[in-house]
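Table S5 (text form). Sequence records supplied for joint modeling of the three-component complex.
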Amino acid sequence: MLSFALRRLLLAIPTLLFISLVIFLLLEASPGDPLGDVPLTVPPEVKERMREALGLGQAWYIRYVLWLKQFFWVEPLYWFDRAFGTGFSEGMQRIISFQSRSPVFDVIAQRLPQTLTVVGMSYLIGVLIAIPIGIVSAYKQYSWFDQIGTFVSMVGFSLPTFFTGVVLIIVFGIKLQWFPSIYDTTLRVTDWDSFAQQVRQMVMPVTVLALYNAAQISRFMRASMLDNLRQDYVRTARAKGLSERIVVLKHVLRNSLIPVVTVIALGLPAVFGGAIITEQVFKVNGLGQLLILAINANDIPMVMTLTFIFAVLIVTFTLIADLLYGVLDPRIRYD
Amino acid sequence: MTDRLLIEESAVNAAAPGAEALPPAAPPPEAPARSQWRDIWRQFRSHRGAMVALVMFVAIILFVTVGPLVWTIEPTFVDIRARNQGFSAAHPLGTDQLGRDLLARLMAGGQVSLAVGLTAMAIALSLGSLIGISSGYFRRLDAPLMRLTELFLALPLLPLLLLMVTLFREPLGKAMGPAGGTFLLIVGAIGVTSWMQTARIVRGEVLGLKEREFILAAKSIGTPAPRMILRHVLPNVVSPIVVAATLGIATAIITESALSFLGLGFPPDFPTWGRLLYDAVDQMQMYPWRVVLPGLLISLTVLSVNYIGDGLRDAMDPRIRKR
Amino acid sequence: MMIPRPTAPALALAVALPALALPALVTPALAERGGDGELRVLYWQAATVLNPYLSTGAKDVDPASMVIEPLAIVADDGSLVPVLAAEIPSVENGGIAADFTSVTWKLKPGLVWSDGSPVTAEDVKFTADYCMDPAFGCAVLAEFEGIASVEALDAQRVRLNFDAPRYAPLQAFVGGRTPVLQKAQFQPCMGAAGASCTAQNFGPVGTGPYRVTEFRPGDVAVFEINPHYRDPAKPAFDRVTVKGGGDAMAAARAVLESGEYDFAWNLQLPPESVAAMEAQGKGRLVASFGSMVERIELNQTDPSPDLPAEERSTRAHPHPVLTDPAVRKALSMAIDRPLLAELTYGPAGKPTCTIVPVPAAYASGRDDCLAQDIEGAKTLLDEAGWLPGPDGIRAKDGRRLSLLFQTTVNPVRQDVQALVKQWWSEIGVETELKAVDGASFFGGDPGNPDSQQKFHADAQMFTDAFYIPDPASFLNKFVCSRIPSAENQWQGNNSVRFCDEGYDAGIAELHRSAEPEKRQEIAKRLTDMLTAEGNYLLPLVHRGMVSAHAGSLQGVAPNGWEGQLWNVADWSRAE
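The corresponding structure-token record, covering 1233 residues in total, follows.
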């Protein structure tokens, strides 16, 4: 297993380089323009100057190599300097966003807290409610619990968050005035009051996202449990006189987790990517909103950096998922 | 700029698409297969939820296909004098802010949404299952196919779609006519960008499956790979595929509306359920039924597909069928 | 709720209109600085940088205008009002040279930056040099066009020397898009370094009522009172938070329904929903009208996909249908502009027949397009030989009146498209609609077939505007040489591809004329050539910027030329 993990990690390097190249070419070729927001009154000559100032005058491969250098060399040096007070990165250009003309990583660092708290929390809650619901739904298939669970999760999943979010805002933000409809990113938790305020402003976005995630994961959990409950080994285990509890929670659950692990492993990088609509609806302004703003403005360095970090997370988590398969089902071998 | 918000969340969450109403577990069409199908149908009929769902699904399909033949108002006809009307004989479901008949728009919109949803899912599901099974079953294909999956997972969806429009809209429109070209572009775009989760899940299942005794046994008697896959592997990964299918139909319908915000979709005055829902959200408080109706239709479709899928899976499970 | 409410938009308009008369009534609340707590402002598009020289979007310029100020601003009526300048330069007071080759601005005495250091003519000179540095890529370089050099005559006076006589000389440093920067702060940002001067661009030192305390690009900006602001009685609010994100509807709800915020900007929303929200009484709408006009352009060249890519929509192939003046006229006559404005824009739009609606002296005042005339349009097309075919679509010499009509993806524009399509169908014109992603439509990427410059359609609709109360440079873009083509990488901004020798001569004459009356007369004539006479451009709606503010917020006054926060120093909270 260890050699498998090492081999995969080594293989990840060319994979990621290739992915970065494809993303870069994709952004190059897609029909946007960083100057698309510039008013129509600005003459073409001025636009040309602005384009050059953004470094767009150079050929794409030069800009790609420059980005690679900045991402893999300058940025690590900079953060090393920050941590140890050294000066290796002095005079080196960090990755600069087209829109804000500030280092991309500074903005990402600014956005990370609210994305991790809101999106991360909602994912955690989603998983925590989805797995028990999936287990119970499968174990008591076609019971009223299962029927209601199916109904709620299907409706919850088929209604997009731009709709459910607005419904929540109208009911709880405006009519009842229980929760703020606008997330305050400048809020600092220093005491109980500010903590309560933070919880209050997290309730609605977390609910919307948690329901959406839970709906999806619980369906896969249920289906997989159902499959396994019908297997011969369950009958054997019961025949051996094992308690229902051990049969279901130990044997069946463990064997049912493979698809769920896959879904969760694909979902975790998405936590970093943020939830674009929900962040917009509640003005959380996390990484999802950052990415969509950057895409709309064709802020290539920002989009490139965000999607590449996303790619790294995907590669990492799929590797973790593959390793977990082996743990969950020792029959799966990699060699 | 709410226009384009939809997209990325779909990008993040839309990873579970793809479905035909019939899981591709069809055994080779030999003579005994017919009785097997009859068995499945008999078992399916005994599943009450699935039968209700099937009736509902057929009703929805009739509503969007036969409906427009009965209710002949043009869905794009603007009648300013009749704007924002409630339920009436002339407009049973009322009209929108430009006086377009909502019933006609729901029917026309359903045609597109259902067609796009089902086709896009079929594409994504076939792609996902194919890649997942090949990757899980054939060890040599595993690494390249999974790296490809990672690549697709990592690509930013929005620029990718914009690029697809730029490159393919006019050539496709020329080759297939504007409507056919757009349809192909949309289902292609959704299908190609949403097979990855299915592929990963199917692969995970196959990895475990292929070490199981019955597979090893079948292998040891020399069953050729295609037959192994069709007869032994595929039927055992139907469950997650059915779930992916039901979840996928919802995301495909919503993603279709999101695509129209890129100018990728049908002409802007042409309704689809997703777009009707999106357009009505802003006026939810004044005209709630304009949100409720398309939302209800989408949910009903998804629910019925879900129950049909459940019924089919149960019906095809030999362990249950023999009971 | 189900009762049709045809009067709702009219009501909203009636409410908005008295608001226009508000500035006269507004008096500075209490002659005391601070004390009114926090002002919470919602910009649903978030600011990404606080330096207008890098980004001219209203989302960036408006918050920045609370901190950095220009020499003068444009008032709602199009006149100039001094801000940092002691007076507006004119030929009479010697500020404008008699031969129009230079302008001398004089600063108010005793001005200081928010760090306490004095504002001098050197700062103004520095700002001009900063923008004009060829390595910088200044977003408002066009405002500095024609300036050959800038001299600081003494501490208070600065002279802008032109390379040739400029008869509309007051351009640079007029309006919030060209504020004065502090030389001491921005000195390290000259030239290529300017693009990445994060600390400066996020927290410029200014002369305005507020200074930046925290800025998170794309999210929120927090301001506090500038202790050195020149008016000791202002501003009334101690802190200002400008939050970004979400959409216009959510912003309207936060101000008009939940009352969480005091002010929300740019609410282009379905008129009825906004009117219903306003009726709840928590806040009010204010509309300010600048020069924004929503218009349809009728392509004068053939966009047919059968032509080679380099020749599509170029002058080599005149448009087979839209070059016929009768067709253009009929298309214009079929549109019911008043109804269109009421249904889709409500308080945010007035029907118009011109692309230069303000300043009043330059507006041609034609309103003959306002009355819809379907029958007249049909007759006109009949007479011109366009006769209905079996499917009701008119044709002549085998050419059908079938048009592709594109615009950006935007719910209001899609409603306008649907309405226009309906009206055109009534006169026998078939219309296919297309909506393009805004970033693609306005992006100048030469490889992008969907941009408004490429214009691969027969008609297209968008909003255009200008920021200086003199339309000369705006009208300049419709000359022949500015037609986009493969030769100029599709970068020209005469997207309608209008070309007329008489027009080009008129523009040349406009640039040579100094007397305001003559300029106005020429501008009106040229505008009419494009619109009322030629119908190359079909103006639809004179668009306003609609904002909502809480009932307790006093002092909000509309100004169509400047940002919505232009007089934030005068805002206060009612008891």
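Note: Residues 112 and 272 of chain B are 6 Å apart (CA to CA).
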